[in-house]
Amino acid sequence: MNKKYIGLIFGAIAGVVVAVTLINGAKVEDTHTFTGFDKSVEYTMTELFKSPPPITEHGWNVDRVVVFVHFLMAVLFVGWTLYFIFCLFKFRESNHPKADYHGVRSKFWTTLVEYGVIAAEVVLIVCFAIPLWAEVMNDEKLAKIKASAKDGSGLEIHILAKQFDWSARYAGNDNTFAQQDIRFADKSNNPYGLDPNDASIDDVLVLAAKDRKGAIVVPADTAVALKITSMDVIHSFKVLPLRVCKDAIPGLQLPIHFKVNTDYLDPNQANKDGEHVFLITCAQLCGDGHGSMNGYLKVVSRKKFKQWLETKSNAAQQSRRENLAAAK
Ligand SMILES: [Cu+2]
């Protein structure tokens, strides 16, 4: 058999074995520290890249892809640099005063390296990137979360971006989102376009979540589906510890989902009420206020979230009734 094919097969098998071993070796111990491959992923992300640890299940898979890509690029960078220096030395003028038009005759090692790189990239795509993409962009999973939001076991939130803040809408006590109508929409008071004459609407709005007190609230250990859109230009909803980053595009409602795992939350980072507050940033250059387009997202326990939503939903309905009465 041609040597080049032996190299290709060898590289592919070795790559798959390494990848599968790494994935299987990645287990969370009872102490919630990571072992095996994920230990090195955790170290690389937190110590070298100075990134906060992920607080979601899928976040670890994002980190694996990030670290694997960087590792592969680092190996290629060092390898090609050494090869370049080797070539400068080996093919120096004093060693080869006359050019050899045939060049190097044996191409076994270069072919082996080339196919090795291809094999590593295939492993990266097949074993890491595609499963991650399939998990994050899974329509069935999204539909399931939306269905579970009806009975309160899951949650759906509509995120609205505008220059230069973030808002959120929850379905409220009835677990049903009210109809929206562009005729009622107003950028500062009614960005979701809810009917001001309908006092039955109990949707909860968190408008311009620019400070910690008025943060967008999500429950831990609950599957959350977001529907993200924008009122003006393209923004991008990014919460680094969630490992969530999704464009907000006018006219489109883009979905993404996540589940915060309480075990991954650092108790030392909690505020005095035991809540964890994270920064929302805009990851798409969107105008002169882009740099200050921050918001806050607060992770609380399921019980606390339920109380919060109920109180807010009742208050929203009450104030709608009062506004209507005052208008009469
Ligand atoms: Cu923006």
Q: Can you give the helix content as a percent range?
A: 40-55%
How many whole angstroms does the radius of gyration measure? 26 Å
Name the beta content range.
15-25%
Query: Which overall shape is indicated by the principal axes computed on the Cα atoms?
Result: elongated
Question: Helix and strand string, N-terminal first?
Answer: HHHHHEEEEEEEEEEH
Structure description:
The protein is built from 6 helices and 10 strands, in the order H-H-H-H-H-E-E-E-E-E-E-E-E-E-E-H. It is α+β, with helices and mostly antiparallel strands and 328 residues long. The protein folds into 2 domains: 3-136, no CATH class; 153-327, Cupredoxins -  blue copper proteins (Immunoglobulin-like, Sandwich). The chain has a 5-stranded mixed sheet. Strands 4-10-9-6-7 form a 5-stranded mixed sheet, with helices on one face. Strand 6 and strand 7 form a beta hairpin. Helix 1 packs parallel to helix 4, helix 2 crosses helix 3 (57-90) and helix 3 (57-90) packs antiparallel against helix 4 (108-136). Residues 27-31 have low confidence and may be disordered. The structure holds copper (II) ion.
Task: Describe, in short, the structure shown.
The protein has 328 residues and is of the alpha+beta class.
Features:
five-stranded mixed sheet, binds copper (II) ion, alpha+beta, elongated, Immunoglobulin-like
Lay out the secondary structure:
Blueprint: H1 3-25, H2 36-48, H3 57-90, H4 108-136, H5 139-150, E1 155-162, E2 165-170, E3 204-206, E4 216-219, E5 223-230, E6 235-239, E7 244-248, E8 254-259, E9 276-282, E10 295-300, H6 302-327
Helix pairs in contact: 1-4, 2-3, 3-4
Bound molecules: copper (II) ion (CU).
